[in-house]
Amino acid sequence: MTRDHPPTPPYYAVIFSNTHTGADETDYAQTAAQMEALAKTMPGYLGFESARNEDGFGIAVSYWDSEEAIANWKHHAEHREARKRGRDHWYSDYIVRVAKVERAYRMNAKSTG
Amino acid sequence: MTRDHPPTPPYYAVIFSNTHTGADETDYAQTAAQMEALAKTMPGYLGFESARNEDGFGIAVSYWDSEEAIANWKHHAEHREARKRGRDHWYSDYIVRVAKVERAYRMNAKSTG
Q1: Which CATH architecture has domain A11-103?
Q2: A 4-63 residues inside an 8 A Cβ radius of B
Q3: Angle, to 10 degrees, between the axis of helix A77-85 and the axis of helix A67-74?
Q4: Domain map of chain B by residue range?
Q5: B58 in helix, strand or coil?
Q6: In chain A, whose CA is at the least distance from the CA of B109?
Q7: What average pLDDT values come out for chain A (113 residues) when binned by 10 residues?
Q8: What is the rounded CA–CA span in Å between residue B16 and residue B30?
Q9: What is the pTM of this model?
Q10: Whole-angstrom distance, CA of residue A61 vs CA of residue A44
Q11: What's the CATH code, domain B11-105?
């Protein structure tokens, strides 16, 4: 979901573009939900958005207040284990990009009449 | 689609997180395809990825080699007109974030055995 109140930049985005193999979908969905819940408990977490096409291509973006917060999450033991299972089973390819959000614009239909 | 050969950072990403109203889907799809084709002709264009959930939430990310390339595309007349139609008809809300990609990692199943 789009966050209602995104923070004022600068902050960081981790853009995870990936293609699913289609293997172990139930197991994947459970782990993805666990990781999203766990990420929300991490220091510096700002938000999470994800979307997936029917053909298996997906984009997930997590938002963080600092490079340190990203590193801390990257090294969390449960997250490391989940990423390993992702590499071994769930993703045929992916790209992770770490980016610094420099500015943001928002439109909400309610605010524009 | 995930690009096979993403460029070496730094470069820029425009992250467009949006929710569809569901209105004029055929017209939307045609305009989106036209805009993607037009973007590819712009100086500094590096790539484009998009995904959408069945519930209407989507993420589209375009990649550019400079801030100037983003500004140039933003001010293109056809793109301006398409964005206005998006605000008026196709999106109930959206956030645009401009971010500088600082590093990237790639995994391809073929390369990891």
Answers
A1: 2-Layer Sandwich (3.30)
A2: 6, 9, 13, 15, 17-19, 21, 49-53, 57-59, 61
A3: 70
A4: 11-105
A5: strand
A6: A92
A7: 70 97 91 96 96 95 97 97 95 96 87 45
A8: 18
A9: 0.92
A10: 15
A11: 3.30.70.100
